[in-house]
Amino acid sequence: MVEDQPDVAAVVEATADDIATMEIRGAAAIGDAAAEALATQAERSEAATPAAFRDQLRAAARELYETRPTAVSLPNALRYVLRGIEGETVAELRESTIASAETFRTDLEQAQERLGEVGANRLRDGDVVMTHCHSTDALACVEAALDAGKHVEAIVKETRPRKQGHITAEQLREWDVPVTLIVDNAARRYLDDADHVLVGADSIAADGSVINKIGTSGLAVNARERGVPVMVAAQTIKLHPDTMTGHTVEIEMRDESEVLSETKYADIAGGDRTDDGLAVENPAFDVTPPRHVDAIVTERGQFPPESIVTLMRELFGETTGEPWEV
Ligand SMILES: O=C(COP(=O)(O)O)[C@H](O)[C@H](O)COP(=O)(O)O
Predict the structure, then answer these.
(1) 141 is a catalytic site residue
(2) All domains of the chain, ordered by start, with CATH?
(3) What backbone torsions phi and psi does residue 286 show, to the nearest 5 degrees?
(4) Which residue in the list 32, 127, 133, 286 is annotated as catalytic?
(5) Is 133 one of the catalytic residues?
(6) Tens-digit pLDDT profile for residues 151-192
(7) Which terminus of the chain, N or C, has fewer Cβ atoms within 10 Å?
(8) The one catalytic residue among 202, 242, 286, 294
(9) 212 labeled binding residue
Protein backbone atom coordinates (compact mmCIF):
# COMPACT_ATOMS: atom_id res chain seq x y z
CA MET A 1 0.00 0.00 0.00
CA VAL A 2 1.33 3.44 -0.90
CA GLU A 3 1.21 5.75 2.10
CA ASP A 4 -0.43 9.15 1.69
CA GLN A 5 2.08 11.91 1.09
CA PRO A 6 1.65 14.80 3.51
CA ASP A 7 -0.13 17.78 1.91
CA VAL A 8 2.28 20.52 0.92
CA ALA A 9 0.61 23.87 0.30
CA ALA A 10 0.64 25.06 -3.31
CA VAL A 11 2.41 28.22 -2.19
CA VAL A 12 5.33 26.13 -0.86
CA GLU A 13 5.56 24.42 -4.24
CA ALA A 14 5.48 27.83 -5.93
CA THR A 15 8.27 29.13 -3.67
CA ALA A 16 10.35 26.01 -4.34
CA ASP A 17 9.85 26.54 -8.03
CA ASP A 18 10.81 30.22 -7.80
CA ILE A 19 14.03 29.29 -5.97
CA ALA A 20 14.90 26.54 -8.46
CA THR A 21 14.30 28.81 -11.44
CA MET A 22 16.06 31.73 -9.71
CA GLU A 23 13.05 34.03 -9.67
CA ILE A 24 14.10 34.16 -6.03
CA ARG A 25 17.88 34.15 -5.83
CA GLY A 26 20.76 35.21 -3.61
CA ALA A 27 21.43 33.36 -0.37
CA ALA A 28 19.67 35.75 2.02
CA ALA A 29 16.56 36.03 -0.14
CA ILE A 30 16.39 32.25 -0.48
CA GLY A 31 16.55 31.75 3.31
CA ASP A 32 13.93 34.43 3.85
CA ALA A 33 11.56 32.96 1.25
CA ALA A 34 11.95 29.46 2.70
CA ALA A 35 11.04 30.67 6.21
CA GLU A 36 8.05 32.55 4.83
CA ALA A 37 6.91 29.45 2.93
CA LEU A 38 7.03 27.33 6.10
CA ALA A 39 4.92 29.94 7.90
CA THR A 40 2.38 29.84 5.08
CA GLN A 41 2.37 26.05 5.18
CA ALA A 42 1.55 26.27 8.89
CA GLU A 43 -1.16 28.88 8.33
CA ARG A 44 -2.88 26.88 5.61
CA SER A 45 -2.44 23.43 7.12
CA GLU A 46 -5.63 21.41 7.53
CA ALA A 47 -3.85 18.71 9.52
CA ALA A 48 -6.17 16.91 11.93
CA THR A 49 -3.46 15.81 14.35
CA PRO A 50 -0.18 17.24 15.68
CA ALA A 51 1.70 14.36 14.05
CA ALA A 52 0.13 15.11 10.66
CA PHE A 53 0.99 18.79 11.09
CA ARG A 54 4.63 18.00 11.80
CA ASP A 55 4.75 15.61 8.82
CA GLN A 56 3.48 18.37 6.55
CA LEU A 57 6.07 20.84 7.79
CA ARG A 58 8.84 18.29 7.31
CA ALA A 59 7.62 17.52 3.78
CA ALA A 60 7.48 21.23 2.96
CA ALA A 61 11.02 21.71 4.31
CA ARG A 62 12.27 18.82 2.17
CA GLU A 63 10.66 20.24 -0.96
CA LEU A 64 12.24 23.65 -0.36
CA TYR A 65 15.60 22.07 0.49
CA GLU A 66 15.78 20.16 -2.77
CA THR A 67 15.79 23.29 -4.94
CA ARG A 68 19.39 24.54 -4.89
CA PRO A 69 22.29 22.88 -3.06
CA THR A 70 24.95 25.51 -2.40
CA ALA A 71 23.54 28.34 -0.28
CA VAL A 72 23.52 27.07 3.32
CA SER A 73 21.14 29.86 4.28
CA LEU A 74 18.42 27.54 2.96
CA PRO A 75 18.95 24.55 5.32
CA ASN A 76 19.90 26.95 8.12
CA ALA A 77 16.58 28.76 7.69
CA LEU A 78 14.58 25.53 7.56
CA ARG A 79 16.34 24.15 10.63
CA TYR A 80 15.78 27.36 12.57
CA VAL A 81 12.05 27.44 11.86
CA LEU A 82 11.49 23.73 12.49
CA ARG A 83 13.40 23.87 15.78
CA GLY A 84 11.04 26.57 16.98
CA ILE A 85 7.93 24.40 16.57
CA GLU A 86 6.46 23.50 19.93
CA GLY A 87 3.10 22.71 21.49
CA GLU A 88 0.66 19.89 22.09
CA THR A 89 -2.17 20.87 19.77
CA VAL A 90 -2.31 21.74 16.08
CA ALA A 91 -3.22 25.32 17.00
CA GLU A 92 -0.16 25.64 19.25
CA LEU A 93 2.09 24.09 16.65
CA ARG A 94 0.74 26.45 14.02
CA GLU A 95 1.27 29.49 16.20
CA SER A 96 4.82 28.54 17.18
CA THR A 97 5.81 27.82 13.56
CA ILE A 98 4.57 31.20 12.43
CA ALA A 99 6.32 32.91 15.35
CA SER A 100 9.55 31.05 14.67
CA ALA A 101 9.52 32.03 10.99
CA GLU A 102 8.78 35.64 11.91
CA THR A 103 11.68 35.79 14.38
CA PHE A 104 13.98 34.27 11.80
CA ARG A 105 12.99 36.81 9.16
CA THR A 106 13.29 39.79 11.49
CA ASP A 107 16.69 38.60 12.73
CA LEU A 108 17.83 38.21 9.13
CA GLU A 109 16.92 41.77 8.31
CA GLN A 110 18.54 43.15 11.46
CA ALA A 111 21.66 41.05 10.95
CA GLN A 112 22.09 42.50 7.48
CA GLU A 113 21.76 46.01 8.82
CA ARG A 114 24.32 45.40 11.57
CA LEU A 115 26.68 43.67 9.15
CA GLY A 116 26.40 46.71 6.89
CA GLU A 117 27.60 48.98 9.69
CA VAL A 118 30.54 46.68 10.43
CA GLY A 119 31.48 46.50 6.75
CA ALA A 120 31.09 50.23 6.23
CA ASN A 121 33.90 50.82 8.75
CA ARG A 122 36.29 49.23 6.28
CA LEU A 123 35.29 51.68 3.54
CA ARG A 124 36.88 55.14 3.56
CA ASP A 125 35.46 58.28 2.03
CA GLY A 126 36.19 58.17 -1.72
CA ASP A 127 36.87 54.42 -1.93
CA VAL A 128 36.12 52.38 -5.03
CA VAL A 129 34.74 48.86 -4.58
CA MET A 130 34.78 46.15 -7.21
CA THR A 131 31.77 43.83 -6.96
CA HIS A 132 30.93 40.43 -8.35
CA CYS A 133 27.39 39.08 -8.81
CA HIS A 134 24.62 40.59 -6.66
CA SER A 135 24.83 40.30 -2.90
CA THR A 136 22.45 42.10 -0.56
CA ASP A 137 24.97 41.62 2.29
CA ALA A 138 27.71 43.31 0.24
CA LEU A 139 25.37 46.10 -0.78
CA ALA A 140 24.38 46.64 2.86
CA CYS A 141 28.02 47.66 3.53
CA VAL A 142 27.91 50.24 0.75
CA GLU A 143 24.54 51.53 1.92
CA ALA A 144 25.79 51.98 5.49
CA ALA A 145 28.90 53.79 4.21
CA LEU A 146 26.68 56.13 2.19
CA ASP A 147 24.47 56.69 5.24
CA ALA A 148 27.60 57.65 7.16
CA GLY A 149 28.20 60.36 4.54
CA LYS A 150 31.02 58.64 2.67
CA HIS A 151 31.41 58.88 -1.08
CA VAL A 152 31.76 55.43 -2.63
CA GLU A 153 32.20 54.43 -6.27
CA ALA A 154 31.82 51.00 -7.81
CA ILE A 155 33.28 48.90 -10.58
CA VAL A 156 30.66 46.26 -11.20
CA LYS A 157 31.51 42.97 -12.87
CA GLU A 158 28.77 41.82 -15.19
CA THR A 159 28.92 38.20 -13.92
CA ARG A 160 28.27 35.74 -16.71
CA PRO A 161 26.25 33.75 -17.44
CA ARG A 162 23.23 35.27 -15.70
CA LYS A 163 24.56 38.81 -15.40
CA GLN A 164 23.46 39.49 -11.83
CA GLY A 165 25.97 42.37 -11.91
CA HIS A 166 23.28 44.39 -13.66
CA ILE A 167 21.07 44.08 -10.58
CA THR A 168 23.95 45.40 -8.47
CA ALA A 169 24.53 48.27 -10.89
CA GLU A 170 20.86 49.20 -10.83
CA GLN A 171 20.72 49.26 -7.03
CA LEU A 172 23.90 51.29 -6.72
CA ARG A 173 22.69 53.80 -9.29
CA GLU A 174 19.46 54.19 -7.33
CA TRP A 175 21.68 55.24 -4.43
CA ASP A 176 23.52 57.68 -6.73
CA VAL A 177 26.76 55.69 -6.56
CA PRO A 178 28.85 56.24 -9.70
CA VAL A 179 29.05 52.83 -11.40
CA THR A 180 31.37 51.51 -14.07
CA LEU A 181 30.07 48.25 -15.51
CA ILE A 182 32.72 45.89 -16.92
CA VAL A 183 32.70 42.44 -18.50
CA ASP A 184 34.19 39.76 -16.29
CA ASN A 185 37.32 39.46 -18.41
CA ALA A 186 38.20 43.09 -17.72
CA ALA A 187 38.39 42.66 -13.96
CA ARG A 188 42.18 42.37 -13.67
CA ARG A 189 42.71 45.49 -15.72
CA TYR A 190 40.41 47.54 -13.49
CA LEU A 191 41.64 46.18 -10.16
CA ASP A 192 44.27 48.93 -10.13
CA ASP A 193 41.41 51.42 -9.82
CA ALA A 194 39.76 49.57 -6.92
CA ASP A 195 40.39 49.92 -3.17
CA HIS A 196 38.45 46.79 -2.21
CA VAL A 197 36.93 43.72 -3.75
CA LEU A 198 33.55 43.39 -2.05
CA VAL A 199 31.54 40.19 -2.47
CA GLY A 200 28.93 38.13 -0.64
CA ALA A 201 28.83 34.43 0.10
CA ASP A 202 26.49 31.49 -0.32
CA SER A 203 28.35 29.42 2.24
CA ILE A 204 31.42 29.81 4.42
CA ALA A 205 33.27 26.63 5.35
CA ALA A 206 34.87 25.93 8.71
CA ASP A 207 38.38 26.53 7.33
CA GLY A 208 37.32 30.00 6.16
CA SER A 209 36.85 29.10 2.48
CA VAL A 210 34.24 31.24 0.81
CA ILE A 211 31.74 29.67 -1.56
CA ASN A 212 30.27 32.32 -3.81
CA LYS A 213 29.31 32.98 -7.43
CA ILE A 214 31.61 31.39 -9.98
CA GLY A 215 34.45 33.78 -10.75
CA THR A 216 34.91 34.95 -7.17
CA SER A 217 38.03 32.81 -6.64
CA GLY A 218 39.76 34.07 -9.79
CA LEU A 219 38.92 37.63 -8.83
CA ALA A 220 40.35 37.08 -5.34
CA VAL A 221 43.59 35.62 -6.73
CA ASN A 222 44.02 38.61 -9.03
CA ALA A 223 43.16 41.00 -6.21
CA ARG A 224 45.82 39.45 -3.99
CA GLU A 225 48.36 39.82 -6.77
CA ARG A 226 47.44 43.49 -7.15
CA GLY A 227 47.35 44.13 -3.40
CA VAL A 228 43.62 44.89 -3.31
CA PRO A 229 41.97 43.61 -0.12
CA VAL A 230 39.11 41.15 -0.48
CA MET A 231 36.17 41.66 1.85
CA VAL A 232 33.41 39.08 2.10
CA ALA A 233 30.10 40.28 3.53
CA ALA A 234 28.22 37.33 4.98
CA GLN A 235 25.67 37.10 7.74
CA THR A 236 26.22 34.21 10.13
CA ILE A 237 23.40 32.35 8.40
CA LYS A 238 25.95 31.74 5.63
CA LEU A 239 28.16 29.70 7.97
CA HIS A 240 27.97 26.06 6.92
CA PRO A 241 27.81 23.94 10.10
CA ASP A 242 28.32 20.59 8.31
CA THR A 243 31.79 21.64 7.22
CA MET A 244 32.90 21.48 10.86
CA THR A 245 32.67 17.70 10.58
CA GLY A 246 34.46 17.53 7.25
CA HIS A 247 31.57 17.76 4.76
CA THR A 248 32.26 19.65 1.58
CA VAL A 249 29.83 22.12 0.06
CA GLU A 250 28.06 20.93 -3.07
CA ILE A 251 28.61 23.22 -6.01
CA GLU A 252 25.46 23.58 -8.08
CA MET A 253 25.80 22.75 -11.76
CA ARG A 254 23.26 24.60 -13.86
CA ASP A 255 21.84 24.01 -17.31
CA GLU A 256 23.98 24.53 -20.38
CA SER A 257 21.28 26.76 -21.87
CA GLU A 258 22.52 29.54 -19.56
CA VAL A 259 25.84 29.45 -21.40
CA LEU A 260 24.72 28.73 -24.95
CA SER A 261 22.32 31.17 -26.46
CA GLU A 262 20.27 29.97 -29.41
CA THR A 263 22.00 32.43 -31.68
CA LYS A 264 25.54 31.68 -30.57
CA TYR A 265 26.68 30.15 -33.82
CA ALA A 266 24.07 31.79 -35.98
CA ASP A 267 25.94 35.04 -35.40
CA ILE A 268 29.47 33.82 -36.03
CA ALA A 269 29.08 30.99 -38.52
CA GLY A 270 26.28 32.04 -40.78
CA GLY A 271 23.74 30.01 -38.87
CA ASP A 272 24.82 26.68 -40.34
CA ARG A 273 26.25 25.17 -37.18
CA THR A 274 24.36 23.82 -34.22
CA ASP A 275 25.47 23.28 -30.64
CA ASP A 276 24.70 19.55 -30.76
CA GLY A 277 27.36 17.47 -29.10
CA LEU A 278 29.26 20.39 -27.65
CA ALA A 279 30.18 19.67 -24.03
CA VAL A 280 29.29 22.54 -21.71
CA GLU A 281 29.96 22.86 -17.99
CA ASN A 282 28.12 25.50 -16.00
CA PRO A 283 29.08 25.53 -12.31
CA ALA A 284 27.22 28.30 -10.49
CA PHE A 285 29.73 28.75 -7.64
CA ASP A 286 33.37 28.31 -6.75
CA VAL A 287 35.52 28.08 -3.65
CA THR A 288 37.91 30.84 -2.64
CA PRO A 289 40.56 29.60 -0.20
CA PRO A 290 40.96 31.58 3.02
CA ARG A 291 44.45 32.79 2.08
CA HIS A 292 42.87 34.97 -0.62
CA VAL A 293 40.33 36.60 1.69
CA ASP A 294 41.22 39.47 4.01
CA ALA A 295 38.08 39.69 6.13
CA ILE A 296 34.71 38.07 6.58
CA VAL A 297 32.25 40.70 7.74
CA THR A 298 29.30 39.42 9.76
CA GLU A 299 26.72 40.96 12.06
CA ARG A 300 28.90 39.70 14.93
CA GLY A 301 31.94 41.65 13.78
CA GLN A 302 34.68 41.04 11.24
CA PHE A 303 36.90 38.00 11.26
CA PRO A 304 40.01 36.77 9.51
CA PRO A 305 38.72 33.73 7.58
CA GLU A 306 40.84 31.28 9.58
CA SER A 307 39.08 32.18 12.83
CA ILE A 308 35.50 31.91 11.58
CA VAL A 309 35.26 28.35 12.93
CA THR A 310 35.14 29.72 16.47
CA LEU A 311 32.00 31.67 15.67
CA MET A 312 30.57 28.68 13.83
CA ARG A 313 30.99 26.44 16.91
CA GLU A 314 29.46 29.07 19.15
CA LEU A 315 26.39 29.46 16.95
CA PHE A 316 25.78 25.95 15.73
CA GLY A 317 27.45 23.60 18.22
CA GLU A 318 29.08 20.54 16.70
CA THR A 319 26.15 18.62 15.30
CA THR A 320 23.57 19.26 12.60
CA GLY A 321 21.70 16.64 10.56
CA GLU A 322 19.09 17.20 7.87
CA PRO A 323 16.85 20.22 8.50
CA TRP A 324 13.74 18.04 8.90
CA GLU A 325 15.42 15.76 11.42
CA VAL A 326 15.23 18.28 14.24
O1 LIG B 1 26.40 34.26 -5.36
C2 LIG B 1 25.44 34.95 -5.09
C3 LIG B 1 24.12 34.77 -5.74
O4 LIG B 1 24.09 33.66 -6.60
P5 LIG B 1 22.72 33.30 -7.40
O6 LIG B 1 22.36 34.51 -8.20
O7 LIG B 1 23.11 32.12 -8.24
O8 LIG B 1 21.68 32.95 -6.36
C9 LIG B 1 25.53 35.98 -4.00
O10 LIG B 1 26.79 36.56 -3.98
C11 LIG B 1 25.30 35.29 -2.65
O12 LIG B 1 24.15 34.48 -2.70
C13 LIG B 1 25.13 36.29 -1.52
O14 LIG B 1 23.96 37.05 -1.72
P15 LIG B 1 23.22 37.75 -0.48
O16 LIG B 1 24.26 38.61 0.17
O17 LIG B 1 22.11 38.56 -1.08
O18 LIG B 1 22.76 36.67 0.43
Answers:
(1) no
(2) 10-114 (1.20.120.420), 129-252+281-316 (3.40.50.10470)
(3) -140, 175
(4) 133
(5) yes
(6) 999 999 999 999 999 999 999 999 999 999 999 999 999 999
(7) N
(8) 202
(9) yes
